[in-house]
Amino acid sequence: MTHRLAVLVFSLAALLQALAPLPSLAAENAAPAKKLPLGMTALGKEMAHSKVEIKSQDYNDLDGDGRSELVLITREKNGTKTLVVLHQNAEGTEYARVYEFPFKEGYELDRMEFDDMAKTGRQQIQLWLKNDSPDEQWRELSIHGFSDSWKTMFEYVWATPKKDEAPAQAADKKAPKTRIIKFGEVFDDLRLVDENLDGVKEIVIPVQNKTIEVKSKEGGKVIYITGARYNVWRYSEGAYHKDVREKVTSFLSKTLPIKSVEASSSATDKKTKEVTNPPEYFSDSNVGSSWVPGGKKDGVDDWAKIWLADRVPVHAMIVIPGCMESENSWANNNRIKAFTLEFSAGETTKINRADLEGVTAPVAGVKEMPRGETKGASQLLILFDEGLTSRSVKLTVDEIEKGPKGAKTCVSEITLF
Asked: Beta strand pairing status for 178-182 and 239-242?
């Protein structure tokens, strides 16, 4: 009896397993979406009779019903160009127009692509258009697809600079030159990217670059791009919607990690002889603490050195050349007027606060600007040429602005980017 019961249970289990669906196998063996040639349909013959020119055609199952839509770019007799989506009937014998998107006047097809940007399981149409007039160069991106219905999910028009336009200064070789240095990657044009790394592509549109402009030794200027502002459009409920807040990138917020610091000397307590203001104080992100040289010449010829973990690109540097503990501390103590920078490969350059336009390579420019924490205090933002790499940066004090008798010389902060 027990043996028969075991056989019966096994047979029932085998039967249920045999009847169970095999979705993965069915998906693997699913037939490709059927393509219906337009010329074999009544609609195709009607369009031919009406002299509708087919500029482009692509097959793609855009609504997920297993039958390929036919996506056309058409041109009417009056010159109107249109994106047209044709949908097959259930029998796969005829097409019906389910969606149309007319081009704006003067715009031509640049390219048409299909991509499931939003990971909905359905491809969307990316329609890239261009309008190249003698005076302007315009671009348009529109995204079309099916969610609960056929719709325009996104549309944006923007101007781009003419690539063949030479700068006005090129006509005069003696005119002051403008150098543009990008501190990190910035988008100059619209991009489709996975902005937050969630597997879904967003539409990222540049709004404005963050720049710092300084005068060059030759009388021109250096424009340093230190970040940017972007609008980000994300997919939600069948369309793309712009974030309420702009995305802001700032490369000056990314400091280089410091391995160690050293100095030629540091101030000590007269009684205990203990160091009171070590070089670590200029790299502690606290502007209220300072490295104070311990030399006999009020800091002149003293030096401080920063070691990095490896030889890395160095784009910019901030130096606070005084004591920022308080307003009185800044006003009554010495301030560094001129100093020399030296890098691990031997490059050297001198910086004088009285002549910031007279800098030499590898410095592209210097800008002195106020620090809000302490009234009257300022910092030097030093911008380097592209391609500068180093594993160390050494600052040597060359000249100071003397304060009252007994004043000290301070470096409140040195920061590398």
From this structure: unpaired
pLDDT at residue 315, rounded to an integer: 94
**Whose CA is closest to 380, among 398, 368, 364?**
368
All structural domains of the chain: 38-159 (no CATH), 170-253 (no CATH), 258-416 (2.60.120.260)
> CB–CB of 400/334 below 8 Å?
yes
pLDDT, tens digit, 9 for 90 and up, residues 365-388: 999 999 989 999 999 999 999 999
For 352-406, give the DSSP string. ETT-GGG--TTEEEEEEEE-TTSTT-EEEEEEEPTT-EEEEEEEEEEEEE--STT
Residue 401 C-beta-side C-alpha neighbours within 13 Å? 13
Say whether 6 sits in a helix, a strand or coil. Answer: helix
Determine the pLDDT at residue 34. Answer: 75
Tell me, what's the pLDDT at 11? 40
Confidence at residue 174, expressed as pLDDT on a 0 to 100 scale: 63
Are 327 and 373 in contact by the 8 Å Cβ rule? The answer is no
H or E segment at 346? none
- The strand pair at 221-236 and 178-182 is best described as parallel
For the chain, residues with pLDDT lower than 70 are 1-33, 161-175
Token pair in block for residue 413: 């902060």
Could you give the CA distance from residue 206 to residue 186 in angstroms, rounded to a whole number?
9
Please tell me the pTM assigned to this model.
Answer: 0.76
SS3 assignment, position 414:
strand
Q: What would the DSSP string read from start to end of 167-223?
A: PGGGG-TTSPPEEEEESS---SS-EEE-TTSSS--EEEEEEEEEEEEEE-TTSSEEE
Distance CA 367, CA 180 (A): 16
User: How far is C-alpha 73 from the geometric centre of its chain's CA atoms?
Assistant: 33
Distance CA 307, CA 394 (A): 9
Cα distance between residue 46 and residue 68, in whole Å: 20
